[in-house]
Amino acid sequence: MERRFGRYFPDMEALHAGFRTQACFVCGLVPGAVESPRHVFYEDDRAIASLDGYPRAYGYSLVAPKEHREQVGAARMYVYTFGSNEGNAHVHWHVVPLPPGVPYEEQQGAWAGWDKGVPEIPQQEMSDLAWRVGRRM
Ligand SMILES: [Zn+2]
Q1: CA distances from 122 to 99, 125, 126, 128, 129 (A)
Q2: Residues 77-102: tens digit of each pLDDT
Q3: Ligand 1 mean position to 110 CA, how many Å?
Q4: Hey, what domains does the chain have and what are their CATH numbers?
Q5: Tens of pLDDT, residues 55-70
Q6: What is the distance in A from the centroid of ligand 1 to the CA of 118?
């Protein structure tokens, strides 16, 4: 049974301002780096996994390379998983490349919503893209 916790609402404006102006918080998780609360539950030479400092759910975690990296080919690669036991139950991950040049306000969780609609990409383009991605794996 999940424990119940109160909820709070961080100052999101200050939080995002910090993301844009302060030292990298992920690098702060690495031992010997900037002091910050650490809730690391896995690390090896290349990767680190930690509970999120602002967990929107119990167990909300982050996984990152230990080396400060900002590129994965796209401007950013988002990985989400949704669904629940009540619907869309088969576990799966959404891997979402963020194209370069997207304004900050339209990045991050904004890509998980439906409010902008779905691009009408022709099936031939989808087939070609699947082939190109598969070729690189
Ligand atoms: Zn970093």
Answers
A1: 19, 5, 6, 10, 11
A2: 888 888 788 877 888 887 888 888 88
A3: 22
A4: 1-69 (3.30.428.10), 70-137 (no CATH)
A5: 887 778 888 888 998 8
A6: 32
Enumerate residues with CB within 5 Å of ligand 1 (an ion): 24, 26-27, 68
CB neighbour class for 53 (10 Å; exposed up to 12, middle 13-18, buried from 19): middle
Q: From the CA of 115, how far away is ligand 1's center (Å)?
A: 31
* pTM of the entire predicted model: 0.67
User: Ligand 1 centroid to 6 CA: how many Å?
Assistant: 30
Amino acid at 137: M
How many angstroms does the Cα of residue 116 sit away from the middle of ligand 1? 31
